[in-house]
Automatic annotation (TrEMBL):
Residues 91-164, 210-255, 316-369, 485-620 form a coiled coil. It comes from Macaca fascicularis. Keywords: Coiled coil. GO terms for biological process: centrosome cycle; positive regulation of microtubule nucleation; regulation of Golgi organization. The lineage of its organism: Eukaryota, Metazoa, Chordata, Craniata, Vertebrata. Residues 426-479 are annotated as: Disordered. One of its GO terms (cellular component) is Golgi apparatus. Residues 551-674 form the CDK5 regulatory subunit-associated protein 2/Myomegalin coiled coil domain. The keyword Ribonucleoprotein does not apply. Residues 426-439, 449-467 have a biased composition (Polar residues). It comes from the Eukaryota. This is CDK5 regulatory subunit-associated protein 2/Myomegalin coiled coil domain-containing protein. InterPro entries: CDK5RAP2_MYOME_CC, MT-associated_AKAP9-binding. Transmembrane segments: none annotated.
Length: 690
């Protein structure tokens, strides 16, 4: 029972650990929500800045002359396209945030339900243990009363046997005294006979009298011998009965010692159960307080989420209206540009539109992949929660089975106690009947004593036969009781083995849960690292896009703008792919570390090439700016043409590199799952490489 109590305490401690882990996850989710709020505020600031830029560009278009209208319209088109792209990204981010909030609310609801179920189960266990304690106390009181009654009966029997022995000794003394008295009478008769011989009577009459007297004396002596033999035989039978009763008393003492051991174990279990009940009561109070706090937090989260949802809906409506207006403006501007542009420039515009569509598709694919990853993580978390709930249900079922088994054992013990009480009552009634059957002869004359002895012999034989039968039946009953006790002990040992198996299963399940929780923590850390990398990359891309836009605003020749736009778009696509390669490279398994290192080295080389291409682009932009400052030099025209050709060559090389990187990404997707320590080494190598 102590082992079972230890197992119950360990299970309660493990449940407390799971509750603390859930609380920590809730805190981490709250911190993530705060970070998301900050990101949303930053996005709102960027939107405000973009609106100000658009307003300034519109004012510049109004103040500018009619000769420079096509270039400004193209610049406005580019600004509008970038604004559309940013607004789409912000809408998608807002949708992600809304989904994350819904998931957090669902997790909080599940935690609250789990805590309520645990509190209800603890109350049920408390009621069952209280009932069981009451039953055990009643059983203890009954056993104490039975023990007191049995001790009283044993004392009474010993006193009765002592009195019987004293009466028998008194009878023997009385018989000896009667024998001495008879010898004196015989001597007197002899003296009388001698005196009569001296008299004148005849010898024949004297001889007849002597013969009669001798016959009477002989008969009385025979009767006395018979009475003495009967007394000794009765004493021997009584001694045998006493021996049998002592053996029965010893067996009963052994049974009482066993019952006392069982009672002591039950008392220890009762004390441990009371301590457990107190601990469970404290846990229930703590859980009730935590439930109240969780409900309060839930209400606050719901209110905050409702306010935030309303604000986001208003922002989304505003963004949709602005997008609709921008789309109309873009359509108008595109129509005017198509009317004004020539045949070659219309093809350039179509290519730009196609590349924008490709870019949107790529972004949609990336978002779908991210959503799939999030859904997979949610499914894993749900599976873990389901496994935890199943383990808890199994433990509850095992506890209920154990309670039922204990109740059955208590009922069997009560039945055995009743059976033993009945046997004790039968054994106590048997010597009373023997005492009533016995009759102690004291102080009558010799003839009456002999007659009573001859009449009492068959009755004593019958009583001794009855006591022998009863003594033979007593050990049989004790043997049956011992068999039942041995069967109960076997059943208890089997129940303990089942409890040990259940405890082992619970330990294994808890080890699996801890391993899964560690894996989840590693995955969450990796996701945080990936999110930080993505944020840094997006910031760098935005800064570079702003620089490119500033350079394009400084340019004058409208014919060079489409080529520059192509190059910038290609560079952005390359960077996005490199970022995706980096994010996917963090999810590689640890069994193929050498292959991963080789692929990462290739990616480092590709990134160095991309950096070279970016430097070439910057040189192109600087040369274009210089050409804009000094437009009459022919040598600079030639250098620009050479640089454009070099840019085309670099573009072809970059396309090849992109094809290789896509192949490597496909290979990386086919690799095994995540490994813990080797992933960290890969990350360190990756950081040193970049």
């Amino acid at each position: 029972m102590s082992y079972e109590l230890k197992c119950a305490q360990e299970s309660s401690q493990k449940q407390d650990g799971t509750i603390q882990n859930l609380k920590e996850t809730l805190k981490s989710r709250e911190s993530e929500t705060e970070e998301l709020y900050q990101v949303i505020e930053g996005q709102n600031d960027t939107m405000a800045k973009l609106r100000e830029m658009l307003h300034q560009s519109q004012l510049g278009q109004l103040h500018s002359s009619e000769g420079t209208s096509p270039a400004q319209q193209q610049v406005a088109l580019l600004d509008l396209q970038s604004a559309l792209f940013c607004s789409q990204l912000e809408i998608q981010k807002l949708q992600r945030v809304v989904r994350q909030k819904e998931r957090q609310l669902a997790d909080a609801k599940q935690c609250v339900q789990f805590v309520e179920a645990a509190a209800h189960e603890s109350e049920q266990q408390k009621e069952a243990s209280w009932k069981h304690n009451q039953e055990l106390r009643k059983a203890l009181q009954q056993l104490q009363e039975e023990l007191q009654n049995k001790s009283r009966q044993l004392r009474a029997r010993e006193a009765e046997k002592y009195n019987e022995i004293r009466t028998q000794e008194q009878n023997i003394q009385h018989l000896n005294h009667s024998l001495s008295h008879k010898e004196q009478l015989l001597q007197e008769f002899r003296e009388l006979l001698q005196y009569r011989d001296n008299s004148d009577k005849t010898l024949e009459a004297n001889e007849m009298l002597l013969e009669k007297l001798r016959q009477r004396i002989h008969d009385k002596a025979v009767a006395l011998e018979r009475a003495i033999d009967e007394k000794f035989s009765a004493l021997e039978e009584k001694e045998k009965e006493l021996r049998q009763l002592r053996l029965a008393v010893r067996e009963r003492d052994h049974d009482l010692e066993r019952l006392r051991g069982v009672l002591s174990s039950n008392e220890t279990t009762m004390q441990s159960m009371e301590s457990l009940l107190r601990a469970k009561g404290l846990e229930v109070e703590q859980l009730s307080t935590t439930c109240q706090n969780l409900r309060w937090l839930k209400e606050e989260i719901e209110t905050k989420f409702s306010h935030w949802q309303k604000e986001q809906e208003s922002i989304i409506q505003q963004l949709q209206t602005s997008l609709h207006d921008r789309n109309k403006e873009v359509e108008d501007l595109s129509a005017t540009l198509l009317c004004k542009l020539g045949p070659g420039q219309s093809e350039i515009a179509e290519e730009l539109c196609q590349r924008l569509q490709r870019k949107e598709r790529m972004l949609q694919h990336l978002l779908s992949d991210r959503n799939k990853l999030v859904v997979e993580h949610e499914m894993e978390i749900q599976g873990l929660l389901q496994s935890v709930s199943t383990r808890e249900q199994e433990s509850q079922a095992a506890a209920e089975k154990m309670v039922q088994a204990l109740m059955e054992r208590n009922l069997e013990l009560q039945a055995l106690r009743q059976y033993l009480g009945g046997r004790d009552s039968l054994t106590s009634q048997a010597p009373i009947s023997n005492q009533q059957a016995e009759v102690t002869p004291t102080g009558p004359p010799l003839g009456e004593q002999t007659d009573q002895g001859s009449m009492q012999i068959p009755s004593r034989d019958g009583s001794t036969s009855l006591t022998a039968k009863e003594d033979a039946s007593i050990p049989r009953s004790t043997l049956g009781d011992l068999d039942t006790v041995a069967g109960l002990e076997k059943e208890l040992s089997n129940a303990k083995e089942e409890l040990e198996l259940m405890a082992k299963k619970e330990r294994e399940s808890q080890m699996e849960l801890s391993a899964l929780q560690s894996m989840m923590a590693v995955q969450e850390e990796e996701l945080q690292v990936q999110a930080a990398d993505m944020e840094s990359l997006t910031r760098n891309i935005q800064i570079k896009e702003d620089l490119i836009k500033d350079l394009q605003m400084q340019l004058v020749d409208p014919e060079d703008i489409p080529a520059m736009e192509r190059l910038t778009q290609e560079v952005l696509l390359l960077r996005e792919k490199v970022a995706s390669v980096e994010s996917q490279g963090q999810e590689i398994s640890g069994n193929r570390r050498q292959q991963l290192l080789l692929m990462l080295e290739g990616l480092v080389d590709e990134r160095s090439r991309l950096n070279e291409a970016l430097q070439a682009e910057r040189q192109l932009y600087s040369s274009l700016v210089k050409f804009h400052a000094h437009p009459e030099s022919s040598e600079r025209d030639r250098t620009l043409q050479v640089e454009l050709e070099g840019a085309q060559v670099l573009r072809s090389r970059l396309e090849e590199v992109l094809g290789r990187s896509l192949e490597r990404l496909n290979r990386l997707e086919t690799l095994a799952a995540i490994g813990g320590g080797e992933l960290e080494s890969v990350r360190i190598h990756h950081k040193h490489a970049y």
